Amino acid sequence: MEPADHDGATHVVDEPSDRDAPGADPPMPGMATRADVARLAVSRGRQADAEFCRLMLAHHVGGLHMIEEVVERGQRPEVIRLAERMRTGQRREVALLQTLVAELDS
Fold it and tell me: Sign of the CA dihedral 38, 22, 28, 16?
């Protein structure tokens, strides 16, 4: 998945060629594999909605783990404050995504 800044801009990241090998883990928890993005690219309608929500849910949960680490171990107050604000927003989005996934999978 092309990483997106919180302003919505996407960026292509040079990824190792064996990233899509069977059983290969994404570079960090919550990052979509190329196979995930390919599935999203060919899905339509409700299937696209569900795939997007599942991928974003995993992405946000991974982000929450990173946020907790920097809140516990970080030093710079502005970084910690930013992480705490991000945690609030991502928790809300996780709750919404969980609701949407449940609805779309029913």
Answer: negative
pLDDT at 27: 66
Residue matched to tokens 């290969």: 24
Residue type at 105 in one-letter notation? D
DSSP character at residue 74: -
Sign of CA pseudo-dihedral 23, 59, 47, 34: negative
Q: What long-range pairs does 66-71 form, CB within 8 A, spacing at least 24?
A: 66/28
Q: Is the pLDDT of residue 20 over 80?
A: no
Beta-ladder partners of 4: 10
- The alpha carbon of 18 is separated from its chain's Cα centroid by a whole number of angstroms, namely 21
Q: pTM for this one?
A: 0.71
